[in-house]
DNA sequence: ACTCTTATTCTTGCATACAAGGATGTTGAC
DNA sequence: GTCAACATCCTTGTATGCAAGAATAAGAGT
């Protein structure tokens, strides 16, 4: 209970950032956070240090910590790398997946189908995360799983935006179908290519994203 | 100058880990480090938190921080991911490199040639790092550069070991030649494949690595 | 003699205190 | 009226202190 307070703080603040509760550019006041969480500044600082090391916040010397504002180009770069890592995970999953992985992947795919049919964007968003997590797991590379999970998490806010674009949800789900087939039939390179394309934010899709981001600039808060 | 002490501490400790001054499994005593660096425990702890977030050390609750011991399989996984990222960097470099990048890459390649010819493993080790850094830079993806640099750094100790294997240095340099050619002639996929293979620790090479690691187990300290 | 239990010590976890460097507001001069 | 300089305040950076849990050592019982 009085255990890893700093761990809890890190997760809470990270979550706040990822859910846009702390928007990019916001300053994270140590005393304010300390008061909010009912702890002293010390564990807050330690949590912030961790977030800074991961790259979620920027710690300007003597001037406090701010949530990083990646900028469209940088977000694009992050999606590029994510695409590559996901492709790798898919490739490995195609070669290494077990029966359990197969069951889990199909289950996750099934859940995506339901939320896609119900046109429930929020549920689909969540199920989609589980789907990708299932692929990571099936890669059986613990390090790759960690890397993918971390980056996936960092890209959360932008993926969420993307789902609002046109009928991205239906497109996304239909792409999932091909990916599942490729993985389960062991076609590593096909799985890689499909996943890479699935993630890659390029061409018109990227334009949409930038447009959406630009809109968000003029937010009330 | 007396600025970010914690930043300096982080770098110093990280360097100590990467250079095996702090060996895997070693416990990092806060008071000991504090005394050694002439500071209090607070900045030490904050530095350790950062290293923990990166994954270089493990912070066991109430039981102190220890340098992580990756284990051969995990090291293999890390090399796998590194290979993929390097391949991606090479591919992007082939498509995006500027004249400056070209000059830098050739210069780094030239330095590697000299140290390889001189059979100077230590210098080659350093020049090799610059060579790969030149490729990252030529990819013109700041995020990818950061990811590659971080992982490259984490794999330092093991790459160093690898260089001692057989005539790895000569082989490494000859592979560099093909990579340079592929990048400068814009053959993205060839560059990717060559770099991936260059990094990948597989088959006999991996056996060599494990053997070398096993030897290191019985170290004097 | 060996093991289990208990007490002591040592280290970590968190809070508080103090110093120092930016941010800000006010006042004065042009 | 505006800009600049100075003083004040506010936040961060670091040290220290105290409490609590884990490692360790000592003692008793089998």
UniProtKB/TrEMBL annotation, chains A, B:
Coiled coil: none annotated. Pfam families: FCD (PF07729), GntR (PF00392). Residues 3-70 form the HTH gntR-type domain. GO terms for molecular function: DNA binding; DNA-binding transcription factor activity. The keyword DNA-binding applies. The keyword Transcription applies. It comes from the Bacteria. SMART domains: FCD, HTH_GNTR. Keywords: DNA-binding, Transcription, Transcription regulation. This is GntR family transcriptional regulator. It comes from Phyllobacterium brassicacearum. The lineage of its organism: Bacteria, Pseudomonadati, Pseudomonadota, Alphaproteobacteria, Hyphomicrobiales.
């Amino acid at each position: 209970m009085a255990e890893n307070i700093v761990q809890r703080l890190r997760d809470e603040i990270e979550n706040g950032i990822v859910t846009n509760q702390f928007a990019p550019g916001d300053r994270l006041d140590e005393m304010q956070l300390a008061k909010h969480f009912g702890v002293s500044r010390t564990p807050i600082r330690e949590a912030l240090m961790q977030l800074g090391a991961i790259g979620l916040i920027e710690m300007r010397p003597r001037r406090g910590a701010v949530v990083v504002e990646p900028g469209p180009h940088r977000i694009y770069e992050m999606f590029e790398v994510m695409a590559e890592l996901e492709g790798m995970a898919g490739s490995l999953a195609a070669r290494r997946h077990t029966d359990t992985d197969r069951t889990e992947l199909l289950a996750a795919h099934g859940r995506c189908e339901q939320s896609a049919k119900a046109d429930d964007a929020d549920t689909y968003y969540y199920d989609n995360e589980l789907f990708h997590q299932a692929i990571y797991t099936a890669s059986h590379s613990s390090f790759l799983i960690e890397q993918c999970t971390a980056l996936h998490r960092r890209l959360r806010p932008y993926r969420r935006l993307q789902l609002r674009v046109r009928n991205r949800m239906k497109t996304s789900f239909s792409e999932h179908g091909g990916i599942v087939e490729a993985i389960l039939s062991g076609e590593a390179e096909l799985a890689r290519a499909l996943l890479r394309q699935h993630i890659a934010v390029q061409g018109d899709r990227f334009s949409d994203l930038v447009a959406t981001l630009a809109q968000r600039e003029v937010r009330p808060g």
